[in-house]
Amino acid sequence: MKTSLIVDDSRMIRNYLRSSLQALGFEVREAVNGCEAVIRCEESMPDLILLDWHMPVMDGLEFIRLLREGGGALQPKVVFCTTESDIAHIRIALEAGADEYVMKPFDRETLHMKLQLVGAA
Amino acid sequence: MQISKTSRRILADLLKSETGQSFHDSRQWRIGTALSGLSREHGIADLDRLIATLSTSRRSPLAQTLVEALLNNETYFFRDRAMFELLAKQVLPRLAEARATSRTLNIWSAGCSTGQESLSLALLFAEQAPRWEGWTISILGTDVSAGMIEAARNACYTPFQIQRGLAVGQMIKWFDETPRGWRAQERLRKMVRFEQHNLLDALPRPTSFDVVLCRNVLLYFDDVTRRQAFDRLASTLAPDGWLMLGAGETSIGHTERITPDRALRGLYRHTSFVDARRQTGPARNAAGRI
Q1: What's an example Gene Ontology biological process for this entry (chain A) (predicted)?
Q2: A contacts of B168 (beta carbons < 8 Å)
């Protein structure tokens, strides 16, 4: 079974993403910020990470930079899922190592298409 | 929101006369939701009263608005991506050889809605720019809805629309962020033009198209109208051209002029072309392609 990690401080968003990923056959774990996501990745590196930008303690950008620099050879696909929808943020995310970028609000079909584009679904 | 049988008949007649589309049972439930916003906008709580005004003014702006509200305009970039890969990898290379002399390709997206399909086609060519250098690529997008054509011509999409089917890399490379949304760049727009057109009418400028995409449109027609539409599509398709239908659609049982391409599932050819090839054997070009 493909494994995934949802990193978002909103329980509502996590629930929505969880049901979307489970419907696509993913095993799902959750983290409420980047710091907790680092711990989850150390426990077991997932195949896919859905990552929010703005979170307390450690934001998504800091997390992905740490992941890409020190996460080892088994790198997961990372899809940013964020309210930031301007090109400056998108470029920063891609330069930091994001594989795809989803702007909130989005629907399940969009998420599915994005996961197909990165070869995760 | 419920409407009377009389209102339903008026709407069905209007939709049929303006677009050729029929009300199947599966679409009945959409009527209330599609029209409730209009009802509020015009300050008429009773939908039957709103629809009754149509019997005296079928050509009114309200009638047009009602028709547009009933159309399904669902679309997104690279819808059914496998079909676009088939175009890019199988059809376009063959056309590149078949049209090597004229170096011109005409493509028609019939029922283009807000233009994402036409722009996806333009993107296919733009992403293979060296191969198509010196070619004239002309993509026509048509739709029965004036509102959809206006939106398609603007080629400007909300964040929700732009990311449906488009990779983020494609989005930032081929679209510009503007105050009104993400707008297709000139290098895409110059390949595409949009015109309001009813599929059942003759095209304003008759053209022979090398590829015609008519996806998820014919399913809204009744049998007789669908046959007429197939005739229209067949008349405009080049003798060796390709027709692409929606995933749930087929030519079988609806026309004798068009036949499924046995090698490329989802694509259709002129029956006369397929028959001729069967009799003479497939003509192979220098690359060995049929």
Answers
A1: phosphorelay signal transduction system
A2: 90, 94, 98, 100-101
CB-based contact A114 B163, cutoff 8 Å: yes
> A101: which chain B residues are within 8 Å (Cβ-Cβ)?
163, 168
CB contact under 8 A, A116 and B165: no
pTM of the model: 0.89
CA B40, CA B50: separation in Å to the nearest integer? 10
Q: Do B172 and A91 touch (CB under 8 A)?
A: yes
Residue B290 counted as domain residue? no
The domains of chain A, with CATH numbers, are 2-117 (3.40.50.2300)
Picking from B70, B91, B110, the residue at the C-terminal end of a domain is B70
Q: First CA to last CA across chain A, in angstroms?
A: 11
Within this chain, do residues B55 and B183 fall inside the same structural domain, yes or no? no
Number of domains in chain B: 2
Beta-carbon contacts of A83 under 8 Å, excluding residues fewer than 6 positions away, are A53, A54, A103, A104
**Cβ contacts of A103 within 8 Å, gap of 6 or more:** A82, A83, A84, A85, B159, B160, B163
A45-98 tens-digit pLDDT: 999 999 999 999 999 999 999 999 987 888 999 999 999 999 999 999 999 999
Q: Who among B81, B165, B168 is closest to A101 (CB)? A: B168
ipTM of the complex: 0.93
- Give the closest-approach CA distance of A82 to chain B in angstroms: 12
How many Cα neighbours within 13 Å face the side chain of B224? 3
